[in-house]
TrEMBL record:
Protein name: Uncharacterized protein
Top-level taxonomy: Eukaryota, Haptista, Haptophyta, Prymnesiophyceae, Phaeocystales
Organism the protein comes from: Phaeocystis antarctica
Superkingdom assignment: Eukaryota
Length: 125
């Protein structure tokens, strides 16, 4: 008990040493974890910076506002997006046969190749 009291009395500016050591341990653990983490690519940095939490935050906090959604986000397609829907998406629909897709539960290899080649699975950054 005597040494515990001595440790508590050993203070700097009136605070117990334990408060200082916690910061030291936390900083050391952070530096160790930082060295273990893989380096982030430039694409990953850009992708993380592109995200928003605006309306998602509203939904998950239980207070979504349709007015806020309409005021904040534009529901209009860009010229490039409209062209993609009018051309690539329309051409893909012509490649597909609903009956065949429903029965096979899969697209044809040609449809998969078309979607891969035309950027249907890509995220533009």
């Amino acid at each position: 008990v005597e040494w515990n009291m001595q440790a508590l009395r050993s203070t700097r500016h009136g605070l117990p040493i334990a408060l200082y050591s916690r910061g030291f341990l936390t900083a050391a653990a952070y530096r160790l974890a930082q060295k273990q983490m893989p380096k982030m690519s430039e694409t990953e940095k850009v992708a993380l910076g592109c995200g928003t939490v605006g309306f998602d935050r509203d939904i998950f906090t239980g207070s979504p506002s349709l007015k806020h959604l309409l005021d904040t986000y534009s529901a209009k397609l860009t010229t490039e997006e409209k062209a993609f829907l009018d051309n690539e998406t329309d051409a893909l629909c012509k490649l597909l046969d609903d009956h065949q897709v429903c029965n096979n539960k899969d697209f044809t290899p040609e449809a998969w190749d078309y979607m891969r080649d035309r950027g249907f699975f890509g995220m533009k950054i």
